[in-house]
Protein 1
Amino acid sequence: EVQLVESGGDLVQPGGSLRLSCAASGFTFNYYWMTWVRQAPGKGLEWVANIKPDGSAKYYVDSVRGRFTISRDNAENSLYLQMNSLRAEDTAVYYCARDGVTAASDYWGQGTLVTVSS
Amino acid sequence: QSALTQPASVSGSPGQSITISCTGTSSDVGGYNRVSWYQQHPGKAPKLMIYEVTNRPSGVPDRFSGSKSGNTASLTISGLQAEDEADYYCSSQTTTNTQVFGGGTKLTV
């Protein structure tokens, strides 16, 4: 059974940093692109970033480029999102998702809440 | 990377059919057949319902179907059921190797 479990969400002050983790199991992790998607309270989904299976390519939405870094550890079956210079508008539930061969996100975690506030 | 355009809400009665539109540009919806649709119930993670415009993952009822014409993709749900009441989001690959979501549509049954 495919499972994705996010962790690391917390309350952080503006300008602060946070690292999210996503533990994957039930599939061959190093075969798949992985994605982070976020959802601000009461708002819609926003694609944040994705990473190639071997980590050699990474893409970001404009609003986080230069502040967030997506990475992965295939030996540990884990996906990460390092978030720096956090802003109030980064407050959201962050989901990790597996991208199937069609680039659609076919499995999702339950999400982890990041709150940026003083 | 502007969000795709979806109607804020649609409604239908049990047994009826509804269609949700998703309008983008030639740089996303119109340029690729990598359009997906997701269903999200309150407090839950999104669930993939349609991928590559028309394909259903295993386990998704055939009441759900997708199509595309030009820069607009559509999700049709036939034979509406109470459990279909949820938020629906479209998504498309873009020319910059990113993905973009629509603003979401609240379906009321």
Protein 2
Amino acid sequence: AQSVTQPDIHITVSEGASLELRCNYSYGATPYLFWYVQSPGQGLQLLLKYFSGDTLVQGIKGFEAEFKRSQSSFNLRKPSVHWSDAAEYFCAVGEANQAGTALIFGKGTTLSVSS
Amino acid sequence: ETGVTQSPTHLIKTRGQQVTLRCSSQSGHNTVSWYQQALGQGPQFIFQYYREEENGRGNFPPRFSGLQFPNYSSELNVNALELDDSALYLCASNIAGALTDTQYFGPGTRLTVL
């Protein structure tokens, strides 16, 4: 069965420092991979997605992620964190069906940004 | 702003009652998915509706049911509420047929079961 593991429950980063959030997946075929962000009281916003092609994916708000098949990983990175990036981050794998994909999420990583 | 709205924002029910949550998808989005997000957890897939029929279901019992209407609105119904049903319920819409299509999420309905 497909699954997603986010090993870090909570990460604190200083403003201006770089960020890497880890994500490992278990999926039999080529995965569809996503990163979403959730701010308090908000729904989920898509940061970026990977389906095929270039393994380095650029997203919104300066985020990028790299797909590494050999490590079953899809880690999210940002070179310089802003205080507004404090939120909950979810990695997900998409299970394809007729109407699109059903998303399987990890448990999330809470990002705190210190000044 | 994703163009997906949900109502109500918050809801309190007692164990054994029934509840209906509503979602309004983006115009033109013929697929809606529902997710349950318990506190401190990631969202879990409940089911998906495509052209007003259930298209896939996660590991949820039959007391979770749904409806999708031609006007891009949909409902999630939960019967015989249990305490563990307390969660944030999210709906997401997309255009079917494109596997790369993005699912756009609403802000969610917070359900508390007492």
Protein 3
Amino acid sequence: AQKVTQAQTEISVVEKEDVTLDCVYETRDTTYYLFWYKQPPSGELVFLIRRNSFDEQNEISGRYSWNFQKSTSSFNFTITASQVVDSAVYFCALRPPGTASKLTFGTGTRLQVTL
Amino acid sequence: GAGVSQSPSNKVTEKGKDVELRCDPISGHTALYWYRQSLGQGLEFLIYFQGNSAPDKSGLPSDRFSAERTGGSVSTLTIQRTQQEDSAVYLCASRGGLTHYGYTFGSGTRLTVV
């Protein structure tokens, strides 16, 4: 069985603060894929990143960075110098290998960035 | 089209009525997924279509729910005899090719059963 846990339901920060969104997953697969999606108020999910389980290199994209720790089954997401436009619900998701497979999502973390 | 299109964007229906939700995937995308997002919940998988293969219906919560995909393109999710617990946002996603990993989601249909 696959499971994704996002323990933080809601986080509020002041603009320019750094914030980390936690994601812990469970899977019996040795190969799998991890994702982060952003859901702004418009409702559409926006793809942020995909990570293969065999690639533990951390990734940085502008103000966004991701820390993949296979030993602790975590895939945390950090926003540096947060901005109001970062306010959204962020979802972590897990997918097993194979083309006929679906994403298992966490319950999401609502991030509110204020001035 | 340029993105995944879902209609209607909002639907209010009376308990017991049937509803149909439509999804237009990105042209050429072979995989199509339906998810349900209830208040305070994550996205719950409902059904998955891949090309001409039999759909994966393992996530459908009851036999009141059904979906079809005509001509490998447009999909319709039907909920019969709606109940208040069916109130949620229904999201559709499509994915291109067998190895493409990017799921493109639509903006969803917000269903309210009164």
Protein 4
Amino acid sequence: GQQVMQIPQYQHVQEGEDFTTYCNSSTTLSNIQWYKQRPGGHPVFLIQLVKSGEVKKQKRLTFQFGEAKKNSSLHITATQTTDVGTYFCAGYSPGAGSYQLTFGKGTKLSVIP
Amino acid sequence: DTGVSQDPRHKITKRGQNVTFRCDPISEHNRLYWYRQTLGQGPEFLTYFQNEAQLEKSRLLSDRFSAERPKGSFSTLEIQRTEQGDSAMYLCASSLGDLGNTEAFFGQGTRLTVV
């Protein structure tokens, strides 16, 4: 079945440093979604990428979808303590009648003030 | 609150007991998903409903697990003869249409502890 791998598993940064998490799928995706889960919270949707090579920005967050639609990245510029949490990518590939998101294991971001 | 609601938030049960969780999706959402999340892992898909029809079940879902969505509104997830390995956060999510076009909205989850 489809697998989504995410690295690194943990990242500790000083406040103001940049942060990047990478996501790779074993299969070509229809789209990829990114979610953020705060400590003790539930996953909250950040963005969806659909097109090959797509780049989207949300303030300090930049999301990319690879040309082959098998990999993606999330980059945060100048991290803040409010960025703390676990960032998950989730691949959507509705081939063979599967209509669910496959999540990576997430990257847990800690920001040291 | 118009988000996804799950009940109870926490459940402690003895091994071998049955437990049932409830999920109330966002009212107009026709698609409902159950996921399980353990510490340090991403959510793992369990099952998916479109309206009242259960259209997909993960191989993770053993015979002890059953889910329903009568009338296409709320859903229940029952675990029979619980085992310690069932301890996890059970997340419900809903969406308005296909996840190819929209996002999933997650509830706060039900944390199950089997002792």
